[in-house]
Amino acid sequence: MNTPDFAIITDHLAKRFGKATVIHDVNLHVPTGQVYGLLGPNGAGKSTTLGLILGLLQPTSGGVELFGQPWRRDLLGRVGASLNGPAFYGHLSAAENLEVHARLLGLKADVVRRTLERVGLAGAGGKAAGQFSTGMKSRLALGMALLTEPDLLILDEPQNGLDPEGIYALRQQLRDYAGAGKTVLISSHQLGEVQQLADVIGVLHGGTLRYQGPLAQLQAGYDSLEDAYFHLTRAGQA
Ligand SMILES: Nc1ncnc2c1ncn2[C@@H]1O[C@H](COP(=O)(O)OP(=O)(O)OP(=O)(O)O)[C@@H](O)[C@H]1O
């Protein structure tokens, strides 16, 4: 079977909540085997876009393709995601939380130990996840998303609460993941981090995709990525 060029395509995607249109005509192209960074200020529409891709929200118009096929629920079996913070049992440890998910997904027991090591939670012991720091919760969320080794990983602001070592480890992990041919889509408002991590970026502002393409191209003609980003995200503001 041929691998499609794009793991995700959104086709004129739009979403309205009541009278407010928060996503306007968004055509996202997320290349297979690359890290795509969806950038934008608070309220730009990043989480809404990810929710639409995952089928947690219904588009008002437009559509989503996953792996070269029109969106279907069963295609989500190839997707791992973390959105709106981790969904976990607060009274269970990291290992127990992962075990519950692994069992529900019919995975072998050793996947839990490997995942704990992978996300830096092997030393978390029996501590209840409800008492984790924000960074530990982010690590657990990443672990849950990675459990099935999905072809496509979708993470909403995965750096939140991570310390510098955690951010470094996450970056290496996501780069390696894409290096193995898998696709990663992350949302972020941390320009510097996306600069170090992403192959391709999309800049959302006011629900509109203002730029999509390689970082270098966005930066061309500006002194820094920051200058280019501010130009895009301030242009058109009242
Ligand atoms: N369920 C909802 N009902 C009404 N408005 C909503 C709803 N969800 C999101 N919005 C609005 O849609 C817009 C985009 O929100 P969204 O959470 O997608 O932005 P974001 O880019 O992820 O922001 P942040 O970086 O702050 O997480 C905001 O104006 C928000 O208030």
From TrEMBL:
It comes from the Bacteria. Residues 8-231 form the ABC transporter domain. Keywords: ATP-binding, Nucleotide-binding, Transport. The keyword Transport applies. GO terms for molecular function: ATP binding. Signal peptide: none annotated. Belongs to the ABC transporter superfamily. This is ABC-2 type transport system ATP-binding protein. It comes from Deinococcus radiopugnans ATCC 19172.
